[in-house]
Each structure stands twice: as C-alpha cells, then as structure tokens.
Amino acid sequence: MRALTVTLNAALDVTYRVGALVPGDTHRVSGVAVRAGGKGVNVARMLLALGVPVLATGFAGGSAGAMLREDLSRSDVPHAMFPIAGETRRTVTVVADSGQATLFAEPGPVVTPEEWSGFLAHYAELVANADVVVLSGSLPQGLPDDAYATLVRAAPVPVVLDADGPALALGAAAGPAVITPNRGELATASEVDDPLALGATAALVSDGPRGMTAHTADGVWSAAPPEVITGNPTGAGDAAVAALVAGWHLPWPERLAEAVALSAAAVRAPLAGDFDRAFYDQHRADVTPRPVPED
C-alpha cells in the first residue's frame, strides 16, 4: 500500500504551551514547537510511523515553505512539494495545561492559475505510483471550489477526502472512496441525514469525543473511545484518516476501531501529527464497533 497525501494549503505549525489562555492577558510560554503541518502532512507523519510507505505533496512557498520542506526532510517524511511564489501560511496553536487547545489559522497564499495548472501535471505524475490518495484540508486562495473534485477525477486509485464546505460537497460528488467530515461539516455540506447521498462510497463521520460512525454500503457502525480523552485534539481527525489508509483492506468495523483508537492516541500526543503509541497499543482492543440499526 503506497499512499500519496495532498495538502494544498500546507502550513508551518507553531505550538505554544501556556498555563492557561486568558483573553486580554499576557502569557508566559513554557514551550514552543515549530514543524511542517497541514492536515495531509500530519497524515503522512502518522502513516510513516505506522509503517505505510507515503509521499507528501502540496504547495510550499516563501521562507515558511522553505522551513516546511526542511522540517519534512529532517523528519524523514518523503515529500515532493510544489513551489509557488506566495508565502506558505502559519498556524499557531495555544495549548493550555488543561489540554484545551486554541488554533489560529492564517488563510494561506494566493495560488495563481499557472501554478494550479503546473500542480495538476505534478499530481498526475505522482498519483501514477500510488495505491491510495488522501486529499486533506482547506483550499488556498485562488483555487476553485471544485479543486478537490478535479483531483478526485484525475486519480486512477481510491481517494480519501477530508474537507469541508463547498470543497467537500463538490469533491464528494466526484465519487471518492471515503469522506471524513465531522457532524458540523456534514450538516453544512448536505441537507439530508445520509452522508452517502453526497456521492462518496463510504463516510466516516466524527462526533468529537463521542466517537465516530462509519456509513458504508454494507452497513453502519459506531464506536467511541474507551475513556474520556484530554489533550490536544488538533490532529485527531488526521489520525483517523491515517488509520483508514493503514487498514485499507480490513473490514469496515475493524477500520472504524482503528480510526477511533488512533484518533484518541493522537489527542494524547502534544503535537498534531504524532500519537501516543503506548496508549494506542494498550487501548486498541477496548474499542468495540456496534452496528447502527437502519431507520
């Protein structure tokens, strides 16, 4: 299984640790971490940790883009980022000792039509060597709302789509193998309760700490973490996507259990893109998917 992750709005992630976040107050930062980020990059990191061959691509530009590529190389994450003139965005996550995380996300660079056309040719070369593609995150300025739909249709292999808003609705209509919205994103993208009505073959829908539900052609299952998890939830959804890819050939109930367990282990890790392996190994067997009766 060779995975290609695509992060069109990649970021240089900055994480601050503070005792407590108080609006209007001065904060003493006890720890700072800077690393390459964006949802697809986080997925690539976790797939690498799970032993799945992966290549990360997306846009990278300016000094932040250079730092992003340097960090990927330093972390041994295989990558083929596409250069652009605009400056890669930064995201700042402030994590309090309580585990509460507050995220500040810049909008990202403006991608020109010429750069988008160049990336499509770049993508066509990379996807020819992949077994599954992950499309994750927001779209940078300058790209059309149907950018993910274009990438779904251009892929000769199954696609996992993690997006929201019009990008999710249009991308799902192009027929990816799996979409992974949360409840709020699903409500925004569709007026019907069935997520498969959007056009994907399957859907993994997150309900935050209450767990996830897998909607498939073979049935619907739900599962929840074995206990209340506290920590940094920033990369939890990316962990679920990584688990789906790593367990691609497993039956859906087992894939769901893997997604819930790895997502919980990611909340326990201090940085997005990592997971608490000891917690994952200890609690994976405690996640029990249950069938959801049809209405």
List keywords for this structure.
UDP-N-acetylmuramoyl-L-alanine:D-glutamate ligase, ten-stranded mixed β-sheet, four-stranded mixed β-sheet, alpha/beta, single chain, 295 residues
Protein topology:
Blueprint: E1 3-7, E2 11-18, E3 31-37, H1 39-49, E4 54-61, H2 62-74, E5 82-84, E6 89-96, E7 101-105, H3 113-127, E8 132-136, H4 147-154, E9 159-162, H5 165-173, E10 178-179, H6 183-189, E11 202-206, E12 212-216, E13 219-223, H7 236-246, H8 252-267, H9 277-283, E14 290-291
Parallel strand pairs: 1-4, 1-8, 2-6, 4-5, 8-9, 9-10, 10-11
Antiparallel strand pairs: 2-3, 6-7, 11-12, 12-13, 13-14
According to DSSP, the number of beta strands is 14
Q: Report how far the terminal alpha carbons are from each other.
A: 36 Å
Strand portion, in percent? 15-25%
CATH names the topology as: UDP-N-acetylmuramoyl-L-alanine:D-glutamate ligase
Unreliable runs, pLDDT <50, ≥5 residues?
A: none
**How would you sum up the global shape?**
globular
Level of helix content?
Answer: 25-40%
- CATH homologous superfamily classification: Ribokinase
Q: Work out the count of structural domains.
A: 1
Largest sheet: 10 strands, mixed
Strand order of the largest sheet: 5-4-1-8-9-10-11-12-13-14
CATH class assignment: Alpha Beta
Q: Structural class, from helix and strand content?
A: alpha/beta
Mean pLDDT: 93
Element order, helices and strands? EEEHEHEEEHEHEHEHEEEHHHE
CA radius of gyration is 18 Å
Tally of separate helices? 9
CATH architecture term: 3-Layer(aba) Sandwich
